[in-house]
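Entry 14: structure prediction run for Competence protein TfoX. Input pasted below.
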Amino acid sequence: MSTSPATVDFLLDQLTGVGPMGVRKMFGEYCLYWADKPIGLVCDNQLFLKPTAAGRGLMATVTEGSPYPGAKPHLLVTADLWDDRPWLGQLIQATAAELPPPKPKKKKA
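Run finished. Output tokens:
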């Protein structure tokens, strides 16, 4: 099952003002970016963030899940938590701050 565009639109609306947020569609699902840094995935209408100590510290109950078969476990942010706009923004910023910057793209010859 793929993620509906309405789900992604809702998440991006909730994250307005958090920073340079963006998404890219990938195989019917979406990769979530903060300042061109991949921080998570939206798969099957669920939000999966890359696991970080800061992210775990902000979650009252840490739930992990795999966004797709064979993927490493990610932090699963259940839809009932998406309505708390300030908390969700804080979680996104804390996760992004702890992740390394994206690797520079290699120039084509």
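Notes: Strands lie at 21-26, 29-34, 37-43, 46-49, 64-65, 74-77. Will compare against the previous run tomorrow.
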